[in-house]
Amino acid sequence: MRLNLQRVPVSSSHIISIGYDRESRLLEIEYKDGNVYQYLDVPIEENEALMQAESHGRYINNHIRNRYKYSRIT
């Protein structure tokens, strides 16, 4: 699934930007290694917690990865 998603730059050692689409509940994460992943059916509360987390990478590892279906788009 490819949407015209606006990603927000974040301060992280491994992540460049994070985007979220409320309607589709799609979370998109752009990593510094050039990969972009889309996580499906992510609740808005999960995205809000991610964006407020002290460490985005740690939050993704503990709460997003292996919990939601995903696909690599690049």
Describe this structure in words.
- By secondary structure, the protein is an alpha+beta fold.
- It has one domain (7-72).
- It has two helices and five strands, in the order ββββααβ.
- The chain has helices at 44-52, 56-64; strands at residues 7-9, 15-21, 26-31, 36-39, 70-72.
- β1 and β2 form a beta hairpin.
- α1 packs antiparallel against α2 (56-64).
- The longest helix is centred in the middle third of the chain and has 9 residues, at 44-52.
- The two termini are 12 Å apart.
DSSP summary: helix tally = 2
Write the H/E string, N to C: EEEEHHE
Whole-number mean pLDDT:
93
- Globular, elongated, flat, extended or rod-shaped: what is the shape? globular
Helix content range of the residues, please?
A: 10-25%
- Protein structure class: alpha+beta
Head-to-tail CA distance between termini: 12 Å
Low-confidence runs of at least 5 consecutive residues: none
Radius of gyration of CA atoms, rounded to a whole number: 11 Å
| Total individual domains | 1
Q: Strand arrangement, largest sheet?
A: 1-2-3-4-5
Content of β-strand: 25-35%
Using DSSP, what is the number of strands?
5
The biggest beta sheet reads: 5 strands, antiparallel
